[in-house]
# Entry
Amino acid sequence: MSEPGVTEPDQQELAKLRNGKIFVAGHRGMVGSALVRRLDRAGCENLLLRTHSQLDLENQQQVLDFIQSEKPDFVFIAAARVGGIQANNSNPAEFIYSNLMIATNLINAAWKASVQRLLFLGSSCIYPKHAPQPMSEDSLLTGTLEPTNEAYAIAKIAGIKLCESYNRQYGTDFRSLMPTNLYGPNDNFDLKTSHVLPALIRKFHEAKTNDSDTVEVWGSGTPKREFLHVDDLADACLYVSCLPGFVYTENIDQRLSHLNVGTGQDLTIAELAYKIKDTVGYEGNIRFNPSYPDGTPRKLLDVSKLNGLGWKAGIELSAGLRSTYDWYLQNQ
# Structure
């Protein structure tokens, strides 16, 4: 598999990160665990890690007590309630409440404890359903959201605006990254709650194992999606955290307090399905079922701003699919 990223982070800022105390919220999830791996590789040894049983991020007092007691220098917010179209559409109350509480509790506590730098992770679903493609950062709040994941998107938009507002009022250094669709080790492969890529890996694997003639893929197969390996995202998190003075905090009026993270390339769900079919080695047929919702017609991020700051994704989709399927075989 290709190496994530292509550019080394700022060495002076990286030294600060290595010498500081770092809290990774959500370290057991796909993104959080990738972040921990990347921080370990960078020589960051003083990591604060807490499970849900040790720290309930939806409990304001617990979060405040923890942050004020431990006084981390850096906070990465990788914790979130996540899921695919079906999970988002069926449980909007849980998605908006949980994600609002996590963002609000951590960002406010970080300000109160004078945390040096915070990185909030959002999602590409913050942009309008019919935003011009590729979607640039200034598309935020310019149109109607995709209804199936509106609750989740609103919570993530609130997180961006929390960071922006604290920066504006209190001079904090709270940064936000908006990744495209993610995949990789520690992904959720549950067919009821997962996103499309891990769901397809499991479907094709089980069809191969059970010698099934056909795999059903939800939707028409025509929507286009962009996919980023989670190790690339973790590398981008480290890179952006080591930018010496976040370039967008002063551009509040242009709504550029956040940065997109992606590959800049997309493909149709049908093309993805055939790629995964080949990766798994399944020899049967694919049947698309248009009675299931497609969601947003296209979701491609404009990543020119982050590329212009020196970072680009490094893991090709074919190599990423292979390594993800290998992980699934070892951990299913």
Observations:
- Residues 10 and 282 are 44 Å apart (CA to CA).
- The chain is about 40% helix and 15% strand.
- The longest strand covers residues 174-179.
